[in-house]
Specification:
325 residues; Lipocalin; nine-stranded mixed barrel; two-stranded antiparallel ribbon; 12 strands
Length: 325
């Protein structure tokens, strides 16, 4: 009798299990036998890293999803048109919220459960200082401006691990070489045309060597490419939405879940900045390509104008002081 009850329970559980659990997707293989992640992908989405306070990660019904998306899209469009009055421009199209396993996602962060970054007090203070510096329009020289303004790497954390979704230039291209135990995986990000090279089966560089976008070493776990990145450059810590210290460790997982979808999961271990490891995931969707050149320095005048404006302000302040009269 017990066996009959157990068999019936197992049958019911199998029948109610989601289809993707019963039939896991197996990616096609490269000529070297690796799961094939190659091609053009896009992370474009209205979903942000953090969740609004009190909002759930997902909703129970489509009506709740639609209501949330309408409110958020209206707020986004208003912000885009702020000060201009012409609406969203043609080069900055409106995107939808991302979906993971069929559910609309209100944030990339999946842990902590509230969808908020678990800041240490000193980490949050450093982040706010970086935010003030980024918003300020003063500088003694170009070195004081942000790395994105200086075109040293892509803005908004679009290429540096963990990779975020920028509002424009969100395309990526993945190219693989070598076999399962060796070779490289190259990840090209449209913004700033940055290329990360993930070495497969290798060791990390010495601690004193700190390249832009960190030092990425990967290996395969079944269908998943697992990448560990350390040795971050000291100047790439501030990422607009969050902050990383040079001693941070980021683990990423790339898993192809269908012909046109790749799930990108990540976790950040940075005790100098956060009280706990935080985790997230986002979908990368197949894109037609190609990726056009992102000529960051071509016609770029922001830094020169900011510095010139700073000098004019200094001159005006000097002229207004009693000593100069």
């Amino acid at each position: 009798m017990r066996l009959m009850i157990l068999a019936a329970a197992l049958a019911a559980a199998w029948a109610s299990a989601p289809a993707h659990a019963a039939q896991a997707y197996h990616a096609p293989r490269t000529a070297q036998g690796q799961p094939d992640l190659q091609g053009f992908w896009s992370s474009a989405s209205l979903t942000d890293l953090e969740r609004e306070p009190g909002a759930p990660l997902t909703f129970a019904t489509r009506a709740e999803e639609d209501a949330f998306a309408r409110r958020a899209a209206a707020a986004w469009a208003m912000g885009e048109a702020g000060g201009v009055g012409q609406g969203v421009s043609e080069w900055h199209p409106r995107f939808d919220f991302a979906r993971v396993r069929g559910k609309l996602r209100t944030s990339w962060i999946t842990w902590p459960a509230d969808g908020r970054l678990p800041w240490r007090a000193e980490g949050l203070a450093r982040y706010k200082a970086g935010l003030r510096d980024a918003l300020a329009e003063t500088a003694d020289g170009p070195e004081a401006r942000t790395t994105a303004e200086r075109c040293l790497f892509g803005g908004l954390g679009s290429a540096n691990p963990p990779m975020m979704n920028p509002p424009v230039g969100a395309a990526k291209q993945i190219v693989q070489t070598g076999g399962r135990e060796g070779g490289e995986v190259a990840i090209l990000s449209e913004m700033n045309h940055d290329v990360r090279i993930v070495r497969l089966g290798g060791r990390h560089l010495p601690p004193a060597v700190r390249p832009w976008m960190g030092d990425s070493v990967g290996h395969w776990e079944g269908e998943t490419l697992v990448v560990e990145t350390t040795n971050f450059h000291p100047q790439e810590g501030w990422r607009n939405a969050f902050l990383l210290s040079p001693g941070a460790r980021v683990v990423e997982r790339f898993t192809r879940t269908g012909p046109r979808e790749l799930i990108y999961a990540f976790e950040v271990d940075d005790p100098a900045t956060y009280t706990a490891v935080w985790k997230g995931e986002m979908p990368l969707l197949a894109d037609a390509g190609p990726i056009y050149e992102y000529a960051c320095h071509e016609g770029e005048t922001d830094v020169a104008q900011i510095l010139a404006a700073s000098r004019r302000r200094e001159a005006a302040q000097g002229a207004s002081t009693p000593a100069s009269r």
